[in-house]
Specification:
Blueprint (H helix, E strand, L loop, with lengths): L2 E3 L1 H10 L3 E4 L3 H6 L6 E2 L5 H13 L2 H24 L5 E4 L5 H12 L4 E4 L2 H15 L5 E7 L5 H10 L4 E2 L1 H5 L16 H13 L6 E5 L4 E2 L2 E2 L2 H9 L1 E6 L2 H12 L5 H11 L5 H12 L3 H21 L8 E4 L3 H24 L3
Parallel strand pairs: 1-5, 2-3, 2-4, 4-5, 6-8, 6-11, 7-8, 11-12
Antiparallel strand pairs: 9-10
Helix pairs in contact: 3-4, 6-9, 7-15, 11-14, 13-14
Length: 355
């Protein structure tokens, strides 16, 4: 017989990676938000869930259960096989820890797959995330990467993270690049997904006096940053990356592939067109419409993004800010890493001395 487990026990098991976490809700529910690391083996399709739900509301509970049983019975062999292919214990969950997860856990357990069910379902996990965001402590100080648009700050952070440095990639968690063009070619995450990923990433930060983050505004696409991160950004060590505009143009072209998203780029440009000096705006629009994307990007940087960034950057300029003049992404990554290593060594020495 399957066992019910609490959210606390689930998190302990997840830390040890001893099981597969399976969301048995419908595909649209899963895509809307799930527990990070989960896979989706749905008991019902979206259409089947809507049908059963309609019967529940308009006919009776018994009619809904009967139709649900009919649907599930027809797909049981394939459903069970999906779990057997995981070759390990599983934890299943639905929205409230109700009938769907109970049904799934029961049938797969009968077929020899050792299973658990999350008490309270996904709703319990969401409540835990909210509590964590309200109470979590981030002891490390922030080293904040700032720089003109196209300086590859996200790429630098991702590469440093792969090398084992403590990094919070906020744009990666938001699945948005943080500008009016930032959603092009991406499917931005909603607030719930961002919150879950953020809590998970904070818990996984390696032990260190410092962590690295990008100097984001309060909003990235559809999501808002929690106060704890905004405070860390404000009080952090500010690094300003200065990179040649030619390099930045090439980074933007490689990242956005505007030739594959022409209409989206034009639409995004029209949202900011009125904020750009009229002759420059006209040149930018002409370059976009004719497919001269390199020229369009350079004009946008020169007449919109760089001046905007300079006004924002002045808030952080003081005697403790560090300007990094670099040739390219590799050069920037080396200098950021050197700064992190220097600050970390100093902090550890001071800690050893009891300072």
């Amino acid at each position: 017989m399957f066992q019910d487990i609490t959210i606390e026990r689930l998190l302990e098991l997840r830390e040890k990676k001893e099981f597969s976490l399976v969301d048995v809700r419908s595909p649209s529910e899963f895509n809307e938000h799930t527990i990070p690391g989960s896979i989706n083996i749905p008991l019902f399709t979206d259409e089947e869930r809507a049908e059963v739900g309609t019967l529940y509301k308009q006919v009776s509970v018994e009619a809904a259960k009967a139709r649900g049983l009919e649907i599930v019975s027809a797909k049981l062999p394939a459903f069970i096989k999906s779990f057997q292919e995981l070759s390990r214990d599983v934890v299943v969950f639905c929205w409230r820890g109700g009938m769907r997860s109970k049904t799934a856990a029961t049938v797969i357990d009968l077929m020899g797959v050792h299973s658990y069910r999350l008490q309270g379902g996904f709703r319990t996990y969401r409540q835990w995330v909210i509590h964590q965001l309200e109470t979590i402590e981030l002891a490390q100080e922030a080293i904040v990467l700032n720089g003109y648009t196209g300086s590859n700050k996200t790429v630098i952070l991702q590469q440093l993270k792969q090398e084992g440095l403590p990094v919070l990639d906020l744009e990666g968690m938001a699945n948005h690049r943080g500008s009016i063009f930032g959603q092009i070619g991406l499917k931005p995450h909603n607030q719930k997904t961002f919150d879950s990923l953020l809590v998970s990433e904070i818990e996984k930060l390696p032990s260190s006096p410092y962590f690295l983050m990008e100097g984001e505004s309060k909003r990235i696409g559809k999501v808002l940053l929690p106060d704890i991160l905004l405070k860390k950004k404000e009080s952090g060590h500010q690094l300003f990356i200065h990179m040649p505009i030619e390099e930045r143009v090439q980074h933007i072209l490689a990242d956005y592939s505007p030739w594959n998203h022409h209409d989206e780029c034009v639409e995004a440009f029209h949202l900011i067109k009125r904020r750009i000096h009229t002759p420059a705006a006209a040149k930018t629009e002409e370059a976009l419409q004719t497919g001269n994307y390199a020229e369009a990007v350079k004009l946008l940087l020169t007449y919109y993004y760089d001046p905007l960034y300079e006004r924002t950057a002045m808030q952080y300029k003081d005697e403790q800010t560090i300007d990094l003049y670099v040739k390219n992404t590799e050069d920037a990554m080396v200098k950021v890493k050197e700064f992190w290593q220097k600050k970390s060594r100093t902090a550890l020495k001071n800690e050893a001395k009891g300072l």
